[in-house]
Amino acid sequence: MSTTNGSIAPGASRTTLAPPATNTTRPRSTGLIPTNNVTTKEGVTVRTRIDPTLTVDDVVRQLCVNLKVTEPSSNFALRDKDTDELVVNENLRKKIKNKANLKLVNSPNIEAAEIVQKLLVRDDRTCKMALWSLKKFIREEKFAQEFLSHGGLAELAQIICTEHGNTLAYALEAMHNLMDLDYGWSTLDNTFVFKVVQILSSPNSLINVCRPATAILKKLVEADPMNAPGPLIASSSRAPPVAPPGSVYRYGFQIVFQQMRREKGSLETVVNRLGSADTAMILHSMMLINSLLSHVNDTEWDEFISELERLNVRKAVIRLMSSHNIDDLTSSILDFQANIVRVTYRKKSTLVEPEVEPLHESALEYIWHCSKVQEERDSDGEVLKWQKLGFLSENLVHEFQEVGELGLDCLRNFVADDPDLFSKVILEQLSRPVDRRCPIARASNEIVELLAEHWMIFAPAYSTSTTYQPFFLNFYRVHALATQFFLRMWNESGSAAGDFSRIVALARSQVKVALQRENMKPWHEVEHDFLDCEYRAVRDRQMQELEAEDDLLSKVPVRNLKEKITRESAEFVRQQRIQCLFQGAWFVNGIPTPANGPSRRPNGHWRFIRLDNGLKYLHYVDSAVQFAVRNGLEDLPERIEIAAITQIATGTCASPPNNLRDHLDLSPPSNLTPSPLSFSLLTATEGSLADQIASDQLRWADWTDGLNMLRRDSGHVTSDETAGYIKALTEIGLKIKLLDLSGEKVDIPSGLVAGPPPSNTDFFFSDLI
């Protein structure tokens, strides 16, 4: 207890209490200023002065002594009365400084044991209350360790496998929160995974059940051995490496997709929920699809991608792009767009081998069948088949070498759109003299090259687009329109075989025009640009473009060189952005706008954030003023786990008004305007982990794009600055390389012929004599 003059006698407790106030007596003054109110389990609130140099265990022990509690102090813990947050050594100073209202409660080991016992009872009301507490406390490492040590994981999994309704919803949320830890749930088996798939797929499942079930599957997909920290264990020469025993990184795409195969229609259900009226359900479904796309393995790649295409997932995402009321989905949609860039690049890089791959053989047989053309033999007895469709030779591996499987898919889709029209066009071309025929198959492949160049399908790593690209997601339809344009230009201009490159140049020009302002342009205008434009107008515009732009950049060797430099530029910018995160920076703590929901209130006007060297946590400190932060993490007591961040949303919060900067307990006004330099770190379940405002556009770009590039399942960039840097570096690098063509062995035809050397070279040295 405190002394009357406010001092503590030698050997006395450094956690002191003031007598509780009553309605009839005023509390006796002790001379010490209390720091916090503490409420006991019996509901009595006492004022206390807590020494910030103590550990939490010491504080609890002294509280028990002062309150004359007979039970061991190890049975108790402190929690924030308002938020239920467990008080630990890392946040004790913060709680004292903020004068947080605390409460004396059961320690995590007692709480965990009691909750496990309640789960064993299986009484509906008791079980629900226990699960409600469990989903909150399970995020705390001390509690989670005790819960796991008491066999809680098996009981929780059993409840998920047997219960339904809200009880099931609470259990799934608790399991999802537990899976934020990178240990403790490695014993979940295929039976459990299959049950979660069944829950997700059931038409009778409540929306609050489907959300956490979808989130759990996402966690399992991302628990891939290749994502495990530390070294992996090598297996057989053909099998991929595995994580160490007991690691939760033992699941991954293959485990989840195998169970989704067993439950017919499960993937279709996930795709269909992109049309849900519940925004959170859409977000969870979108993130699961992105995780599956990011982690699909080579074995199931063809099957999974084909199934997604069959389910028209691109069409569903395009519909989301046009929904003006779903701003929270922006990051996930851009992630999906980046994933499709990777899918497209892989298809373009995959050789067409009909003698090896049955799917390639089947597609080619379909194209040939729809052409209704008969095979012929030339004078040497060689079969003439594919040349009649417009290829240069019968060697299809060579014909599709530049466009790969993507070119084959595009040609097949072009045929499938209208098989009768395709046959009519082919037969019409064959009726013409050989040199007047439009080579449809070559034209199709050339259009694929033009579209890949336009959308920069150069590298599997990153998409530099910062805006929606609905036409890119409609790649096959755009290809069909552009191929029809090519055929029409050929016919209207009366072209011959030697004019092929000239029509390609016209098509390149029209692609640029038709696909500009992609995020704002309606589809019918794209159709008009390709189907209704006149040859002379296109030719006149192209001539003007050629006057302003050197045609050198359209040559194939230069395009290949540009692809290589684009990949290098993207990786260079990624490393630069992550270096900015390592250095750290000061940000203003913003106030989220009402549309973006609640967030955690900061402890000061400023926040310094720095990424740790392990790329796992963002460490930070809040302060009323900026100060010189030392290297390392000693000055940064708080942290945010990178894996918990599901979205980096931009334009989400406003600067606090002057009257709130020093009074964070006041409620902000409702009419705040979001800052264009703001961003929020969002989770799927907890809302915002941080709401920050950068000091300038460059810092905003460094951090938003650095964080996006850091996340495993994200490949897009947010800012025009970063996209511009990658483009500028590519252009500069390309120009430098073109000055040294021999170094890259780039073969670019040139009409320039070197003349004879000058007869007198004295002028080179005249200025030096």
From TrEMBL:
> InterPro entries per the record?
ARM-like, ARM-type_fold, ELMO_ARM, ELMO_dom, ELMO_domain-containing, PH-like_dom_sf, PH_domain
Q: Which key words are in the record?
A: Apoptosis, Phagocytosis, SH3-binding
The chain positions of domain ELMO read 359-515
One Gene Ontology cellular component term attached to this UniProt record is: plasma membrane
Q: Which Gene3D superfamilies match?
A: Leucine-rich Repeat Variant, Pleckstrin-homology domain (PH domain)/Phosphotyrosine-binding domain (PTB)
Per the record, the domain of life is Eukaryota
A single Pfam family it belongs to is ELMO_CED12
Alphabetized GO MF terms: SH3 domain binding
Which Gene Ontology terms describe the biological processes this protein takes part in? actin filament organization; apoptotic process; cell motility
Zinc-finger found in the keyword field: no
Q: Which intervals of the chain are annotated as region Disordered?
A: 1-36
What the protein does comes down to: Involved in cytoskeletal rearrangements required for phagocytosis of apoptotic cells and cell motility. Acts in association with DOCK1 and CRK. Was initially proposed to be required in complex with DOCK1 to activate Rac Rho small GTPases. May enhance the guanine nucleotide exchange factor (GEF) activity of DOCK1.
**Name under which the protein is recorded:** ELMO/CED-12 family-domain-containing protein
Query: What is the scientific name of the source organism?
Result: Suillus fuscotomentosus
Taxonomic lineage is: Eukaryota, Fungi, Dikarya, Basidiomycota, Agaricomycotina
